[in-house]
Every structure is written in structure tokens, then in C-alpha cells.
């Protein structure tokens, strides 16, 4: 499962990176200050942590289970460079970059069929994302959405485990193949989709 997820992530990012993004046009955007103020407010209101329920799985059928993950310190993301606002057809687009100087953490609870349990604790010391806020004016009002969110800086992943006695050794053996490149790709996929979700949900509260 980890290899398939990793492969899908790499293909997805390659597809995004190969897009021919429009170059910023020199056009008049009268509500530029309002748009950028909205982005500032968006990043200030990101939650401290977010529950990722959709990645529950059986690491080993009937024996080792991974529960809902928690991604934390999302509220540490801050803009690290000036916004770029321009027109793309009828849309107003603002390019942004957010960076966390604190580790972004993902905690994955595990349990065995015997009842023993613990956590897989992962973190990345430096993470930076780039993306777009796209605003479209319609008869019903202005619609806003976050698009093209991509990780552009991601340090090596730190992995630790908690558990009881020999259970720790068993799980470490089972994780041997995924605590490497595939696990990094899986981590990237989960955290990136989580950042996207939190941005979308927080943005809706500001509209």
C-alpha cells in the first residue's frame, strides 16, 4: 500500500510540476490589499492540529492496525515572501509561499490484535509550501479556492516509536520497508492533503 501511495504521489507531483503555468500579467487588481489581507487572516487561523481519519489501515492483516493520524503545528505556517497578485482571465490569482520554522509532526497510533499499542511519531524540521488563492467573481458573489499547493522544501523525516517491550521490535521489523523513500512519499502525501484541507476549511469560514 505504501509503495502504491508513494508512486501515485510522485506521479501527481510530476504532473503538477509539468503544467504550463500562466505568467503573471501586468493588470490592475483594485482589491489587491483586501485579497492579501484575507490570506494573512487565513494563515493566522490555521488549526494547531488536524485529525486525518481516512488513512486508517491494517499494516498487517488481522494483526497490526494503524489508526487515525494527527498532524500538528499547522498553526506555525507563516508567509515567508511577498504575495504576487495578477489576473488570469476573469480570475484574480495570488501566489503565496508559507513556511514553518518549527517541526511539522504527524503521529500515527498503532495497535496489535493482542491489545498492545503505541505511536509512530514523525516530524520534518523545515517545510515550505507554495500555492495559489484563486478568486472568481460571479453573479452570486466572489468564490475563493486554494489550488496548485505543492511542497517545495521538506527536510529529512525523523521517525520514532513508542510501545511496549517486544511489540516495539515486531513493529519496527514490519515497518522496515516503508520507513525510507516510500514512507517519505506517503508522509508527503498525507501532510500535503491535510494542509490543503485545513486551508480550504479555514478559507470557508472567512468567506
Structural overview:
The protein is elongated. α1 packs across α4 (181-206) and α2 packs across α4. The chain is of the alpha+beta class. The protein has helices at residues 2-17, 32-44, 165-174, 181-206; strands spanning 49-52, 57-60, 64-66, 69-72, 78-79, 84-88, 91-100, 104-112, 117-124, 127-138, 141-154, 157-162.
What's the shape? elongated
Please identify the oligomeric state: single chain
Question: What characterizes the major β-sheet?
Answer: 7 strands, antiparallel
Q: Mind telling me the C-alpha Rg?
A: 20 Å
Q: What is the annotated CATH architecture?
A: Super Roll
Taken as a percent bin, the fraction of beta residues is 35-45%
Q: Secondary-structure element sequence?
A: HHEEEEEEEEEEEEHH
Level-1 CATH class name: Alpha Beta
Report the count of strand segments: 12
Q: What is the helix tally?
A: 4
CATH topology: Bactericidal permeability-increasing protein, domain 1
Structural class by SSE content: alpha+beta
- On the 0 to 100 scale, the average pLDDT is 80
Ends distance: 38 Å
How many domain regions? Answer: 1
Helix content: 25-40%
Which spans have pLDDT < 50 for at least 5 consecutive residues? 1-11, 13-24
Which descriptors apply to this entry?
Bactericidal permeability-increasing protein, domain 1, five-stranded antiparallel β-sheet, disordered N terminus
SSE layout and pairings?
Blueprint: H1 2-17, H2 32-44, E1 49-52, E2 57-60, E3 64-66, E4 69-72, E5 78-79, E6 84-88, E7 91-100, E8 104-112, E9 117-124, E10 127-138, E11 141-154, E12 157-162, H3 165-174, H4 181-206
Antiparallel strand pairs: 1-4, 2-3, 3-8, 4-8, 5-7, 6-7, 7-10, 8-9, 9-12, 10-11
Protein name: Putative secreted protein
Keywords: Signal
Signal peptide: 1-18
Amino acid at each position: 500500500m505504501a509503495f502504491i501511495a508513494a508512486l501515485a504521489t510522485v506521479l501527481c507531483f510530476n504532473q503538477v510540476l509539468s503544467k504550463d503555468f500562466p505568467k503573471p500579467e501586468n493588470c490592475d487588481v483594485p482589491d489587491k490589499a483586501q485579497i492579501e489581507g484575507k490570506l494573512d487572516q487565513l494563515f493566522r487561523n490555521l488549526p494547531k492540529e488536524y485529525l486525518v481519519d481516512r488513512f486508517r489501515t491494517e499494516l498487517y492483516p488481522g494483526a497490526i492496525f494503524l489508526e487515525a493520524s494527527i498532524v500538528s503545528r499547522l498553526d506555525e505556517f507563516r508567509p515567508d515572501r511577498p504575495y504576487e497578485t495578477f489576473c488570469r482571465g476573469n480570475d484574480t490569482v495570488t501566489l503565496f509561499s508559507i513556511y514553518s520554522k518549527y517541526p511539522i509532526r504527524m503521529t500515527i497510533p498503532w495497535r496489535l490484535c493482542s491489545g498492545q499499542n503505541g505511536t509512530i511519531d514523525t516530524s520534518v524540521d523545515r517545510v515550505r509550501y507554495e500555492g495559489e488563492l484563486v478568486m472568481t467573481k460571479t453573479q452570486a458573489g466572489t468564490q475563493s479556492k486554494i489550488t496548485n499547493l505543492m511542497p517545495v522544501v521538506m527536510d529529512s523525516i525523523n521517525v520514532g516509536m513508542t510501545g511496549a517491550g517486544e511489540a516495539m521490535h515486531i513493529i519496527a521489523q514490519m515497518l522496515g520497508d516503508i520507513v525510507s523513500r516510500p514512507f517519505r512519499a506517503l508522509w508527503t502525501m498525507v501532510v500535503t492533503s491535510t494542509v490543503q484541507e485545513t486551508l480550504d476549511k479555514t478559507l470557508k469560514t472567512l468567506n
